[in-house]
Fold each of these.
Amino acid sequence: MKDLFSIDGKVAVVTGGSRGIGEMIAAGFLANGARVYISSRKAEVCDETAKRLQDQYGGECISVPADLSGLEGAETLTRAVEAREEKLDILVNNAGATWGESLDEFPEAGWDKVMDTNVKGVFFLTQKMLPLLRKSANPEDPARVINIGSIDGIKTPVFDNFSYGPSKAAVHHLTRVLAARLVKEHIIVNGIAPGPFPTWMLSAGVGFGGATKDVDWDSVGQGNPRGRVGTMEDIAGLAIFLSSRASAFTVGEIITCDGGAVACS
């Protein structure tokens, strides 16, 4: 029982890991003994984040830049992990995009970019990583896939981001479909639907211009039932639970991490 939530020694991939929720999850994994690969589109930012996280939390954090909106990026990331690892224990599909525009002006590019990154990217990276996940999977200690959705895929979004909410609803259902298919192979798939966290994406939406430091997150949090925005401990704690022995009988679930936003809506 003392190792119920242990991920010590596990190998994890966290997409979109250079900032925001992905960075928070990667930090939590590193602090708890996992070796972590992070990926994002911007190589310089990804490299800098990997070094900073490794310096701060110890362990090993490897940067693998890739654009996961297309098949080429999924294959690039998979090959990089295959070159260094015999197996993969945890895949966190967190890379995501959004697009804000009025209903009358919303462009096709905003639809395609979001759907390609948020839905197609999740499916094809999981597909490409399956051989590594299968090598880790066993009845006692299944491999894990964690898809990061959003409460905007459960309730009507506040902002005019018409492709984002539907893309996250698709991620939630894709999670259940993959879970039903892969559970018999000892690969457990679950999802997290975050609410407000101090990320670039929320910052841009509430008018902070993408800044995450030295801005008034308290004012944003006042609108949440818990009276605050989420923290690294909140999202990393849930991701660690979903990666550990503690969740080995939890399959195909979408767990909100939102301070009660959905429950109180």
Amino acid sequence: MQPKLIIHGGAGSSLKSKAAIHAVRHSLYKVIDDVYSMLRAGADAADAVIRGCQLLEDDPRFNSGTGSVLQSDGQIRMSASLMDGKAQRFSGVINVSRVKNPIDLVKILQDSPDRVLSDYGAAELVRELNIPVYNPLTEKRLHEWLEERQGNFERTMADVVAEPEPEFVKPSEPGRGTIGVVALDHKGCLVAGTSTGGKGFERVGRVSDSAMPAGNYANRYAAVSCTGIGEDIIDECLAARIVVRVTDGLALKDAVERSFAEARENGRDFGAIALDRTGAIAWGKTSKSLLAAYHTGHQIGDTLESMEEAQGIELEQEERAA
């Protein structure tokens, strides 16, 4: 089986500039290069997914690990999960703090009799394992929270990515940040991993879809990682719905299209990436943008081209207006 890989760095409103699009592409492609090299060398899908999530969590541009958004009380609480399709095993952590890579805890929990831990249980696990205390806060995320705090949190969510802009500009529409990795290895095994800092400014105790099968799911037939408004993803049980449809015989592309058609009718706002056991790659979105990249086994591609075209049209209109 030829390995396949697809990753995402969130979904939401469009990025603000071509420079931001190029920066996101550069970040995503670096991860693709690293992780696909592992798969090509014979790595298992689980190890590849964990590595991909670690790299994305370590990139302060994305809302997971370093660069996670702050909740309404000014604290960072992160959630993550891993689903091994071959073992049919799910593990996750919810609202964990002071760790560099939440996906590392999720990896450990794959072999535990208690595989999903909330904030207190996750903190106890961190102490038991003597994992070093780490502060994932970045200046850009702190500035974002302070700016919004002055207006008593008028926005319901933080930016999808911390864009490399010289100044902080409030977008007209909020973003939904999460990272995810889905891999098919040479043995035909599928694994999905998802990690997030949450939606930002949320009520303390809010639980993300990223630590649920609704947002991250896999079996022997398909694997899916979701990003977007977590409550919408939970309401649609999106990841599990797509996987079940593939399991029941629907082609991956058709399963994704049908699920997103239903989501549009229900006014949902999210995106998803997916692989099936044949190596088919698919993605879908109801949001304006999905920051995703993939490796077909022959070449790298991404979902950012349409965003670049939209930016080109906007710039052209601005020039004409000037």
Amino acid sequence: MVEKIKFGTDGWRGVIAEDYTFENLRRTAQGFASYMLAQGKAGQWIVVGHDKRFHSENFAAAVAEVLTGNGLNVWLTDGATPTPVIAFSVVNKKAAGAVNITASHNPPTDNGFKVRNETGGAIDPDGLKQIEAGIPDSVENVQRIPFNEALKAGKIVKFDPAPAYIDHIQKLIDLQPIKDAGLTVMVDTMWGNGAGWFPRLLAGGKTRVIEIHNERNPSFPEMKRPEPIQPNIDVGLKATVDNHADVLIITDGDADRLGVGDENGEFINQLRVYGLLAYYLLEVRGLRGDIVKTLSTTGMLNLLGAQYGVPVHETGVGFKYVAPKMTETNALIGGEESGGYAFRGNVPERDGILAGLYMLDFMVRTNKKPTELLKLLFEKVGGEFFYDRVDSAFSGDRAAREQIILNAKPATIGGLKVTGLITIDGFQFKLEDGGWLLIRFSGTEPILRVYCETRHGEKVQAILQDGLKVAGIQ
């Protein structure tokens, strides 16, 4: 039986040697090549990059063979490269798109296949469906040119993407004040592509950068996966305290996501980080522009948007929704619950490196530590916001489960009155305190995700448990 390749919110991911094989990868690359040709991109260039997972450089070479076999040309990164740098390279090289071999924050058993368009941003859901539809059932229908032959013919060209990206970053942010600030910055690169970037960008001043987990090790020791949340970051949080650092900057496996720990070694959740970044751009830098947020991220953004007079757009979960909306509105910032943030002036792609630099700039410009910045934010939005999420397996038909949720019609959740229901991506119940409960289904496995945000820290677990009840899990 032919194995169908199914794209999730950000491309295709699979278990290495199980479904993520060279044969299936080549079939997927053929689907992407066919899509590009249908878009009139014959003869144009595609950027291909990869992360530090097992065999990633060889998987990238296999993709390059297929793309060139279909009449496209390939800019191939000369080593493991952060996803935001690959995305910027698309624009810088005037390429037609990109393929990125990475499973981002997934477990070490996995690898992935991310695709991008000419903006460097995610391809929209319709485009992803077209790519899926173009994946042949057999590898016999895959066109390819042997790697060395394509390299010799100039159809594959290796390049170093770092210098152009660094020049670009320095136009968005003045790094010298950060270098001169005398901060001690702990950086956990989670064995991934972010290694070496902050020391390189911030060298030459009084600020000291201490990196951990900065070698290649595809088994990701000391963490379950390279995802910048607890418990994966507990070693980094402890190192922050041990080294008396002012802040912990965390980049995930492909460096498109940012995690932050404060000076006390406490994790600042992703929703609060998004609030901080938006507040920094609006208040400290005095910029104005639309905010794009997924349903699963913070209501603090809506409050900030109202106070600063900027529109706030809510989308479905995933950058395949955020990126097109950012492009459409020329948004100032866009982001999602998983710690991915994108910025105007950059490509519409998550950038953990730029987001981390903006956090450091926020600290330097205000002369405040992370706990003090949070205090400023909460004063601006009228108090603290609390967030958590639980994932649960479910059995049976998804459509039947969705009907159970629709039929529930809860009057209260976690003791808070339900004021509305939004169904653009899952089921989001608005709550009287300005918080929310969101129930969503995974696109690739029988997993139901329940998220919540509330002003009442003591109600978080009750809200989540009520969410599971609404979904018929308990």
